[in-house]
Write a structure and sequence with these properties.
Keywords: Signal. It comes from Marilutibacter spongiae. This is Secreted protein. The strands form two sheets. This protein has a seven-stranded antiparallel β-sheet, sandwiched between helices. The chain is 36% helix and 23% strand. The protein is globular, with a radius of gyration of 17 Å.
Length: 216
C-alpha cells in the first residue's frame, strides 16, 4: 500500500497559472465527464475501492501500470472519515495471446483500506475548495484521452477527469493530497498537525483566482 500512497502523493493536482495562456495549458488535460475509454474500467475501480460507501469527495488514481487507488472523504451519522483504499492487485489486466487477447476487470478481490476520523470543519473546507476548482473548468471542455496516468474526481454530482497537469498552483493541491495520505497512517496527535497544514494550504488557494483554469 505504501507504493500506492507515494504514487498518489507525488502526482500534481489540478492547477492553474495566473496568466491566461498558462492557465489554459494547465487545464487542457482535464475536463468534465469520463476520459475516453475509461468509463467501464473507472466504474469498476471506483466501485471496488469505495466498498459500498458514498464519498462526498473521491479521487481515484488510474495508473498506466501498478495498482489503482483512491482517496475519499466520507460523511455519515458518526461524522467525517478520511479513507484511503488500494487494490490488492491491478484491476485492469490482459489475458490470452494473439487474436485471443482480452481485457479483464478483476473486481473479485479485497482492497487494502485505511481510514481515520477527520474534523468536520477540515473536511467541509476541502470539499468546498475542490468543488470550486472543478466547477471552474468550462462546461464545454470534456475530459480528453490519455494513455498516461489519469485521475477521476467526483464530488457533489460533479465528475471531472484526465491526466493531471503539473502546474505552479497544483503544488498546493498535491501537497494537500500528500498530507491527507500521511494523516491516514499517523497517530491522532500527528494528524492534528496535518489538519492545520491542510487548512493553511486551503487559505493560500482561496486567495487565487480560479477563473482562468482551462479557459480557452
Amino acid at each position: 500500500m505504501r507504493a500506492g500512497l507515494l504514487g498518489l502523493a507525488l502526482v500534481a493536482g489540478l492547477a492553474f497559472a495566473p496568466a491566461a495562456a498558462a492557465a489554459d495549458a494547465c487545464g487542457a488535460t482535464f475536463g468534465h465527464g469520463w476520459p475516453p475509454a475509461t468509463e467501464n474500467y473507472g466504474s469498476a475501480v471506483e466501485g471496488l475501492l469505495a466498498g459500498g460507501e458514498a464519498p462526498q469527495l473521491m479521487i481515484t488514481r488510474l495508473p498506466s501500470r501498478g495498482t489503482e487507488s483512491a482517496l475519499m472523504l466520507v460523511q455519515d451519522a458518526g461524522g467525517w472519515r478520511l479513507r484511503f483504499a488500494e487494490a490488492d492487485e491491478r484491476v485492469m489486466a490482459w489475458s490470452g495471446t494473439g487474436d485471443g487477447v482480452k481485457r479483464e476487470l478483476r473486481v473479485d478481490q479485497f482492497p487494502d483500506v485505511e481510514e481515520v476520523p477527520i474534523p468536520a470543519a477540515v473536511a467541509e473546507r476541502i470539499v468546498a475548495s475542490w468543488h470550486r476548482l472543478m466547477t471552474s473548468l468550462p462546461e464545454a471542455r470534456s475530459a480528453p484521452y490519455s494513455d498516461e496516468e489519469q485521475w477521476l474526481v467526483v464530488l457533489d454530482g460533479v465528475r471531472v477527469g484526465g491526466e493531471v497537469p503539473d502546474c505552479d498552483a497544483g503544488e498546493l493541491l498535491a501537497e494537500q493530497v500528500k498530507l491527507l495520505i500521511e494523516a491516514v497512517d499517523e497517530s491522532e496527535s500527528k494528524r492534528e498537525r496535518r489538519w492545520a497544514q491542510v487548512q493553511e494550504l486551503l487559505r493560500e488557494m482561496d486567495v487565487q483566482s480560479l477563473a482562468g483554469l482551462g479557459a480557452d
